[in-house]
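Session log. Operator J.P. requested a structure for one protein chain; no other inputs attached. Running the standard single-chain path with C-alpha coordinate output.
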Amino acid sequence: MFKARRTYWMAQIGGWALLSLLIFSASTFSNQSIDLQTIVISTSCFFVMGIVLTHLMRYFFIAMGWLNMRLSNLIPRVLLTSVFFAAIMSILNTLVSHFVSGTPFSFSIVEFSLNVAATLIFFVLWNSVYFTFHFFQRSREQEVSNLQLTASHNEIELKNLRSQLNPHFLFNSLNSIRALIDIEPYRAQENITKLSNLLRKSLIIGSEQLVPLEEELSIVQDYLDLEKVRFEERLEIIQELNPKVMSFLIPPFILQTLVENALKHGISQLIEGGTVWIRVKKKTESILLEVENNGNLRSTRKDSIGIGISNTLRRLELQYKGKAHFELKQNTPNTVIAIIEIKEA
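Structure written below.
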Protein backbone atom coordinates (compact mmCIF):
# COMPACT_ATOMS: atom_id res chain seq x y z
CA MET A 1 0.00 0.00 0.00
CA PHE A 2 2.80 2.44 0.94
CA LYS A 3 4.69 1.63 -2.26
CA ALA A 4 1.58 2.26 -4.41
CA ARG A 5 0.93 5.57 -2.63
CA ARG A 6 4.53 6.68 -3.11
CA THR A 7 4.37 5.75 -6.80
CA TYR A 8 1.14 7.73 -7.18
CA TRP A 9 2.58 10.91 -5.69
CA MET A 10 5.82 10.62 -7.62
CA ALA A 11 3.88 10.25 -10.88
CA GLN A 12 1.47 13.02 -9.87
CA ILE A 13 4.15 15.57 -9.05
CA GLY A 14 6.48 14.50 -11.85
CA GLY A 15 3.76 14.52 -14.51
CA TRP A 16 2.35 17.95 -13.65
CA ALA A 17 5.86 19.36 -13.21
CA LEU A 18 6.82 18.21 -16.71
CA LEU A 19 3.60 19.60 -18.19
CA SER A 20 4.06 22.92 -16.37
CA LEU A 21 7.65 23.13 -17.62
CA LEU A 22 6.47 22.62 -21.20
CA ILE A 23 3.81 25.32 -20.82
CA PHE A 24 6.35 27.66 -19.22
CA SER A 25 8.78 27.13 -22.10
CA ALA A 26 6.05 27.62 -24.73
CA SER A 27 4.77 30.80 -23.03
CA THR A 28 8.26 32.26 -22.69
CA PHE A 29 9.21 31.81 -26.35
CA SER A 30 5.82 32.47 -27.96
CA ASN A 31 4.74 35.60 -26.10
CA GLN A 32 7.55 38.09 -25.44
CA SER A 33 5.10 40.80 -24.23
CA ILE A 34 4.34 38.97 -20.96
CA ASP A 35 6.94 39.46 -18.26
CA LEU A 36 8.73 36.45 -16.79
CA GLN A 37 7.27 36.94 -13.30
CA THR A 38 3.71 36.65 -14.61
CA ILE A 39 4.56 33.48 -16.51
CA VAL A 40 6.22 31.93 -13.45
CA ILE A 41 3.26 32.71 -11.16
CA SER A 42 0.69 31.47 -13.71
CA THR A 43 2.61 28.29 -14.39
CA SER A 44 3.09 27.64 -10.66
CA CYS A 45 -0.64 28.09 -10.06
CA PHE A 46 -1.36 25.73 -12.96
CA PHE A 47 0.99 23.14 -11.39
CA VAL A 48 -0.69 23.37 -7.97
CA MET A 49 -4.23 23.39 -9.35
CA GLY A 50 -3.48 20.40 -11.56
CA ILE A 51 -2.31 18.32 -8.60
CA VAL A 52 -5.15 19.43 -6.31
CA LEU A 53 -7.97 18.96 -8.82
CA THR A 54 -6.82 15.58 -10.12
CA HIS A 55 -6.33 14.37 -6.56
CA LEU A 56 -9.85 15.52 -5.70
CA MET A 57 -11.10 13.80 -8.84
CA ARG A 58 -9.35 10.57 -7.78
CA TYR A 59 -10.91 10.84 -4.31
CA PHE A 60 -14.31 11.28 -5.98
CA PHE A 61 -13.78 8.12 -8.05
CA ILE A 62 -12.90 6.13 -4.93
CA ALA A 63 -15.83 7.54 -2.91
CA MET A 64 -18.28 6.69 -5.70
CA GLY A 65 -16.89 3.16 -6.02
CA TRP A 66 -16.11 3.59 -9.71
CA LEU A 67 -12.77 1.79 -9.52
CA ASN A 68 -14.57 -1.56 -9.46
CA MET A 69 -16.86 -0.81 -12.40
CA ARG A 70 -16.74 -2.43 -15.80
CA LEU A 71 -15.03 -0.43 -18.51
CA SER A 72 -18.24 0.09 -20.51
CA ASN A 73 -19.94 1.74 -17.52
CA LEU A 74 -16.83 3.56 -16.35
CA ILE A 75 -15.85 5.45 -19.53
CA PRO A 76 -18.88 7.80 -19.84
CA ARG A 77 -18.77 8.64 -16.13
CA VAL A 78 -15.05 9.43 -16.26
CA LEU A 79 -15.50 11.61 -19.37
CA LEU A 80 -18.28 13.66 -17.77
CA THR A 81 -16.25 14.08 -14.58
CA SER A 82 -13.22 15.12 -16.63
CA VAL A 83 -15.28 17.79 -18.42
CA PHE A 84 -16.51 19.11 -15.06
CA PHE A 85 -13.03 19.37 -13.55
CA ALA A 86 -11.60 20.79 -16.79
CA ALA A 87 -14.22 23.54 -16.61
CA ILE A 88 -13.28 24.29 -13.00
CA MET A 89 -9.60 24.49 -13.90
CA SER A 90 -10.33 26.76 -16.88
CA ILE A 91 -12.26 29.14 -14.61
CA LEU A 92 -9.44 29.14 -12.04
CA ASN A 93 -6.84 29.75 -14.77
CA THR A 94 -8.86 32.71 -16.04
CA LEU A 95 -9.10 34.19 -12.55
CA VAL A 96 -5.38 33.67 -11.91
CA SER A 97 -4.53 35.33 -15.23
CA HIS A 98 -6.78 38.29 -14.36
CA PHE A 99 -5.30 38.87 -10.90
CA VAL A 100 -1.67 38.31 -11.93
CA SER A 101 -1.68 40.45 -15.06
CA GLY A 102 -4.03 43.12 -13.68
CA THR A 103 -6.02 43.24 -16.89
CA PRO A 104 -9.81 43.88 -16.81
CA PHE A 105 -11.86 40.75 -16.35
CA SER A 106 -13.72 39.61 -19.48
CA PHE A 107 -15.63 36.44 -20.27
CA SER A 108 -16.12 34.86 -23.69
CA ILE A 109 -18.02 31.62 -24.19
CA VAL A 110 -15.94 30.71 -27.23
CA GLU A 111 -12.64 31.36 -25.46
CA PHE A 112 -13.87 29.52 -22.37
CA SER A 113 -14.97 26.51 -24.47
CA LEU A 114 -11.57 26.39 -26.16
CA ASN A 115 -9.84 26.53 -22.77
CA VAL A 116 -12.05 23.72 -21.45
CA ALA A 117 -11.31 21.60 -24.53
CA ALA A 118 -7.56 22.16 -24.17
CA THR A 119 -7.61 21.43 -20.45
CA LEU A 120 -9.84 18.39 -21.00
CA ILE A 121 -7.00 16.76 -22.96
CA PHE A 122 -4.83 16.87 -19.84
CA PHE A 123 -7.54 15.35 -17.63
CA VAL A 124 -8.38 12.61 -20.11
CA LEU A 125 -4.69 11.76 -20.40
CA TRP A 126 -4.35 11.76 -16.60
CA ASN A 127 -7.34 9.44 -16.21
CA SER A 128 -6.03 7.12 -18.90
CA VAL A 129 -2.72 6.74 -17.09
CA TYR A 130 -4.36 6.44 -13.66
CA PHE A 131 -6.91 3.80 -14.59
CA THR A 132 -4.38 1.83 -16.65
CA PHE A 133 -2.09 1.69 -13.62
CA HIS A 134 -5.02 0.84 -11.33
CA PHE A 135 -6.27 -1.99 -13.53
CA PHE A 136 -2.73 -3.34 -13.91
CA GLN A 137 -2.21 -3.26 -10.14
CA ARG A 138 -5.57 -4.91 -9.50
CA SER A 139 -4.73 -7.60 -12.06
CA ARG A 140 -1.45 -8.32 -10.28
CA GLU A 141 -3.19 -8.46 -6.90
CA GLN A 142 -5.77 -10.86 -8.32
CA GLU A 143 -2.99 -12.99 -9.78
CA VAL A 144 -1.22 -13.12 -6.41
CA SER A 145 -4.51 -13.94 -4.71
CA ASN A 146 -5.17 -16.76 -7.18
CA LEU A 147 -1.66 -18.13 -6.64
CA GLN A 148 -2.13 -18.03 -2.87
CA LEU A 149 -5.50 -19.76 -3.21
CA THR A 150 -4.00 -22.44 -5.45
CA ALA A 151 -1.11 -22.93 -3.05
CA SER A 152 -3.57 -23.23 -0.17
CA HIS A 153 -5.64 -25.82 -2.04
CA ASN A 154 -2.49 -27.73 -2.97
CA GLU A 155 -1.31 -27.72 0.65
CA ILE A 156 -4.70 -29.02 1.84
CA GLU A 157 -4.63 -31.75 -0.81
CA LEU A 158 -1.07 -32.72 0.13
CA LYS A 159 -2.09 -33.01 3.78
CA ASN A 160 -5.07 -35.15 2.82
CA LEU A 161 -2.85 -37.42 0.74
CA ARG A 162 -0.39 -37.79 3.60
CA SER A 163 -3.21 -38.53 6.05
CA GLN A 164 -4.41 -41.33 3.76
CA LEU A 165 -0.96 -42.93 3.89
CA ASN A 166 -0.68 -43.02 7.69
CA PRO A 167 -3.47 -45.57 8.41
CA HIS A 168 -2.45 -47.59 5.35
CA PHE A 169 1.08 -47.74 6.69
CA LEU A 170 -0.13 -48.55 10.22
CA PHE A 171 -2.36 -51.47 9.22
CA ASN A 172 0.40 -53.09 7.19
CA SER A 173 2.79 -52.81 10.12
CA LEU A 174 0.26 -54.28 12.56
CA ASN A 175 -0.23 -57.25 10.28
CA SER A 176 3.48 -57.96 10.60
CA ILE A 177 3.13 -58.30 14.39
CA ARG A 178 -0.20 -60.10 14.59
CA ALA A 179 1.25 -63.52 13.73
CA LEU A 180 3.75 -63.28 16.61
CA ILE A 181 1.30 -62.68 19.44
CA ASP A 182 0.42 -66.36 20.04
CA ILE A 183 3.67 -67.93 18.80
CA GLU A 184 6.35 -65.59 20.18
CA PRO A 185 4.76 -63.08 22.57
CA TYR A 186 8.13 -61.68 23.67
CA ARG A 187 9.12 -60.86 20.08
CA ALA A 188 5.63 -59.42 19.58
CA GLN A 189 6.22 -57.06 22.51
CA GLU A 190 9.58 -56.01 21.09
CA ASN A 191 8.06 -55.30 17.72
CA ILE A 192 5.16 -53.37 19.22
CA THR A 193 7.76 -51.15 20.91
CA LYS A 194 9.53 -50.83 17.57
CA LEU A 195 6.24 -49.97 15.89
CA SER A 196 5.46 -47.28 18.47
CA ASN A 197 8.87 -45.71 17.85
CA LEU A 198 8.29 -45.90 14.13
CA LEU A 199 4.89 -44.23 14.42
CA ARG A 200 6.39 -41.48 16.56
CA LYS A 201 8.96 -40.79 13.84
CA SER A 202 6.33 -40.93 11.12
CA LEU A 203 4.08 -38.45 12.95
CA ILE A 204 6.99 -36.02 13.31
CA ILE A 205 8.09 -36.09 9.67
CA GLY A 206 4.56 -36.66 8.35
CA SER A 207 3.61 -33.10 9.26
CA GLU A 208 6.49 -31.73 7.18
CA GLN A 209 6.21 -30.82 3.52
CA LEU A 210 9.74 -32.02 2.74
CA VAL A 211 12.21 -34.10 4.76
CA PRO A 212 15.87 -35.05 4.24
CA LEU A 213 16.39 -38.32 2.38
CA GLU A 214 18.29 -39.65 5.40
CA GLU A 215 15.17 -39.35 7.61
CA GLU A 216 13.00 -41.02 5.00
CA LEU A 217 15.46 -43.93 4.77
CA SER A 218 15.33 -44.26 8.56
CA ILE A 219 11.56 -44.75 8.35
CA VAL A 220 12.03 -47.25 5.52
CA GLN A 221 14.57 -49.22 7.55
CA ASP A 222 12.28 -49.41 10.60
CA TYR A 223 9.41 -50.52 8.38
CA LEU A 224 11.55 -53.25 6.79
CA ASP A 225 12.64 -54.46 10.23
CA LEU A 226 8.99 -55.02 11.08
CA GLU A 227 8.25 -56.70 7.77
CA LYS A 228 11.17 -59.09 8.26
CA VAL A 229 9.14 -60.55 11.14
CA ARG A 230 6.45 -61.61 8.69
CA PHE A 231 8.59 -62.63 5.74
CA GLU A 232 11.66 -63.92 7.65
CA GLU A 233 14.06 -65.63 5.19
CA ARG A 234 11.66 -64.99 2.28
CA LEU A 235 12.73 -61.35 2.20
CA GLU A 236 16.16 -60.04 1.28
CA ILE A 237 17.01 -56.33 1.22
CA ILE A 238 19.84 -54.83 -0.82
CA GLN A 239 20.51 -51.09 -0.51
CA GLU A 240 22.71 -49.04 -2.83
CA LEU A 241 22.79 -45.51 -1.41
CA ASN A 242 24.82 -42.51 -2.51
CA PRO A 243 25.99 -40.83 0.73
CA LYS A 244 26.40 -37.47 -1.04
CA VAL A 245 22.63 -36.97 -1.45
CA MET A 246 21.41 -37.88 2.04
CA SER A 247 20.49 -34.26 2.75
CA PHE A 248 18.36 -33.94 -0.40
CA LEU A 249 14.76 -33.01 0.49
CA ILE A 250 11.86 -35.22 -0.63
CA PRO A 251 8.18 -35.53 0.35
CA PRO A 252 7.75 -37.74 3.45
CA PHE A 253 6.73 -41.39 2.87
CA ILE A 254 7.36 -41.13 -0.87
CA LEU A 255 10.10 -43.79 -0.80
CA GLN A 256 8.45 -45.82 1.97
CA THR A 257 5.32 -46.09 -0.19
CA LEU A 258 7.33 -47.63 -3.03
CA VAL A 259 8.93 -50.15 -0.65
CA GLU A 260 5.54 -51.02 0.84
CA ASN A 261 4.10 -51.45 -2.64
CA ALA A 262 7.02 -53.74 -3.61
CA LEU A 263 6.32 -56.01 -0.62
CA LYS A 264 2.55 -56.04 -0.99
CA HIS A 265 2.29 -56.58 -4.76
CA GLY A 266 5.61 -58.30 -5.34
CA ILE A 267 7.26 -60.31 -2.58
CA SER A 268 4.06 -61.37 -0.77
CA GLN A 269 2.71 -62.87 -4.02
CA LEU A 270 5.71 -65.22 -4.38
CA ILE A 271 5.84 -68.46 -2.42
CA GLU A 272 9.63 -68.43 -2.34
CA GLY A 273 9.77 -64.68 -1.56
CA GLY A 274 12.35 -62.48 -3.20
CA THR A 275 14.63 -59.47 -3.04
CA VAL A 276 13.95 -55.75 -2.78
CA TRP A 277 16.64 -53.42 -4.11
CA ILE A 278 16.61 -49.82 -2.82
CA ARG A 279 18.83 -47.46 -4.79
CA VAL A 280 19.52 -43.77 -4.39
CA LYS A 281 21.53 -42.29 -7.27
CA LYS A 282 22.63 -38.90 -8.47
CA LYS A 283 22.49 -37.90 -12.10
CA THR A 284 23.80 -34.68 -13.59
CA GLU A 285 20.84 -32.50 -12.60
CA SER A 286 18.53 -34.87 -10.75
CA ILE A 287 18.18 -37.47 -7.99
CA LEU A 288 16.96 -40.99 -8.74
CA LEU A 289 15.04 -43.08 -6.20
CA GLU A 290 14.62 -46.68 -7.34
CA VAL A 291 12.81 -49.60 -5.69
CA GLU A 292 13.08 -52.89 -7.56
CA ASN A 293 11.51 -56.20 -6.52
CA ASN A 294 10.93 -59.70 -7.79
CA GLY A 295 7.54 -60.10 -9.42
CA ASN A 296 5.51 -59.28 -12.50
CA LEU A 297 3.73 -56.09 -13.41
CA ARG A 298 0.06 -56.70 -14.11
CA SER A 299 -0.95 -53.25 -15.38
CA THR A 300 0.18 -49.61 -15.40
CA ARG A 301 -3.25 -48.12 -16.14
CA LYS A 302 -4.32 -45.36 -13.73
CA ASP A 303 -7.60 -47.11 -12.93
CA SER A 304 -5.79 -50.25 -11.85
CA ILE A 305 -3.10 -48.84 -9.56
CA GLY A 306 -3.53 -48.71 -5.79
CA ILE A 307 -3.82 -45.82 -3.37
CA GLY A 308 -0.07 -45.75 -2.70
CA ILE A 309 0.99 -45.24 -6.33
CA SER A 310 -1.89 -42.90 -7.17
CA ASN A 311 -1.02 -40.76 -4.13
CA THR A 312 2.64 -40.76 -5.16
CA LEU A 313 1.74 -39.49 -8.63
CA ARG A 314 -0.49 -36.73 -7.27
CA ARG A 315 1.98 -35.63 -4.58
CA LEU A 316 4.83 -35.37 -7.09
CA GLU A 317 2.61 -33.32 -9.39
CA LEU A 318 1.59 -30.92 -6.62
CA GLN A 319 5.01 -30.61 -5.04
CA TYR A 320 7.26 -30.27 -8.07
CA LYS A 321 5.02 -28.90 -10.84
CA GLY A 322 6.42 -31.12 -13.61
CA LYS A 323 9.99 -31.26 -12.27
CA ALA A 324 9.57 -34.82 -10.98
CA HIS A 325 8.89 -37.97 -12.97
CA PHE A 326 7.53 -41.35 -11.85
CA GLU A 327 7.80 -44.60 -13.79
CA LEU A 328 6.66 -48.14 -12.94
CA LYS A 329 7.77 -50.82 -15.37
CA GLN A 330 8.83 -54.43 -15.87
CA ASN A 331 12.61 -54.12 -15.63
CA THR A 332 13.49 -57.77 -16.36
CA PRO A 333 11.26 -60.81 -16.95
CA ASN A 334 11.30 -61.42 -13.17
CA THR A 335 11.60 -57.95 -11.63
CA VAL A 336 9.50 -54.79 -11.46
CA ILE A 337 11.06 -51.39 -10.84
CA ALA A 338 9.57 -48.10 -9.61
CA ILE A 339 11.61 -44.98 -10.37
CA ILE A 340 11.21 -41.44 -9.08
CA GLU A 341 13.39 -38.80 -10.74
CA ILE A 342 13.44 -35.38 -9.09
CA LYS A 343 15.27 -32.48 -10.69
CA GLU A 344 17.52 -30.51 -8.38
CA ALA A 345 16.48 -26.88 -7.94
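Operator note: The chain has a mean pLDDT of 81.
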